[in-house]
Design a protein that fits this description.
Layout: H1 2-35, H2 55-61, H3 66-75, E1 80-83, E2 96-99, E3 104-105, E4 110-111, H4 113-134, E5 138-145, E6 168-176, E7 181-183, H5 184-187, H6 193-205, E8 211-213, E9 225-228, E10 237-238
Parallel strand pairs: 3-5, 8-10
Antiparallel strand pairs: 1-2, 2-4, 5-6, 6-7, 6-9, 8-9
Helix pairs in contact: 4-6
Length: 239
């Protein structure tokens, strides 16, 4: 009986010890997440935080919630302007957001807020890649636009393009502060720093956009990088 009683106390003590260890790990984990909100799936997204485990999931959630998306831009001190709804039918656009200070030309892109939030993060990677490869920053990014009321590849039937609702942007070239120019059509196939730069920023875009298409995808993208925020149940597309 004494042996059985001692064994019972031992099992209880061991269970209590395990419970205390788990509680300590839980408290430590919550404290660590509080200090690293980029890894916390429940923490509000702030674009000023470094990218983390939860960043891509939080960005994806903004695709269907422009109100929350604009709250994220405000929280992150990103200057933007919300435009009134426009368009009709399949091309009706209720979410039109412009990043005021982004270095795009010929005009600031008028896109969905989810595209704008991803662009804000991607621009930081663009500048870092430019400084790494060219020791210069990007002064201007040329784009082919965000909105085009059309179906995919200009067909008369079939799925509508993400451009039909401004949920995409096509980026063509980059002008550096030192005067050099990097273009997708002219530099993608090279082997020097311009080609390396273009591939680096393509790869980085894959972590913030739902779809990234480059000249490696097909001839229709030979002169630009296509980014969009189409929600894909099986994950993003990066080509």
């Amino acid at each position: 009986m004494k042996v059985s009683r001692h064994l019972g106390h031992f099992r209880l003590d061991r269970l209590m010890l395990m419970a205390l260890i788990l509680l300590g790990l839980l408290i430590a984990g919550r404290a660590w997440l509080a200090e690293n909100p980029q890894h916390d799936p429940w923490a509000p997204l702030n674009l000023d935080d470094p990218p983390g485990w939860a960043t891509q999931r939080k960005l994806a959630a903004l695709r269907s919630d422009p109100v929350e998306c604009r709250a994220v831009l405000e929280r992150s001190n990103v200057a933007f302007k919300a435009l009134p709804a426009a368009g009709e039918g399949e091309c009706h656009r209720t979410d039109r957001t412009v990043l005021v200070d982004a270095p795009f030309a010929p005009t600031p892109p008028d896109a969905t807020c989810a595209v704008g939030a991803a662009l804000e993060l991607w621009l930081r990677d663009v500048q870092a890649a430019a400084e790494l490869n060219f020791q210069s920053r990007v002064a201007r990014i040329d784009h082919f636009g965000t909105y085009n009321c059309r179906r995919l590849y200009g067909r008369d039937t079939g799925p509508w393009s993400e451009h039909a609702t401004g949920n995409a942007i096509d980026v063509a070239a980059f002008a550096l502060e030192d005067g050099r120019r990097v273009s997708v059509v002219g530099d993608w196939s090279g082997t020097g720093p311009k080609a390396v730069f273009l591939r680096q920023i393509r790869d980085r875009a894959c972590s913030v956009f739902g779809t990234v298409l480059s000249p490696d995808y097909n001839a229709a993208h030979a002169d630009h990088l296509h980014f969009d925020q189409e929600a894909r149940g099986f994950g993003g597309v990066c080509r």
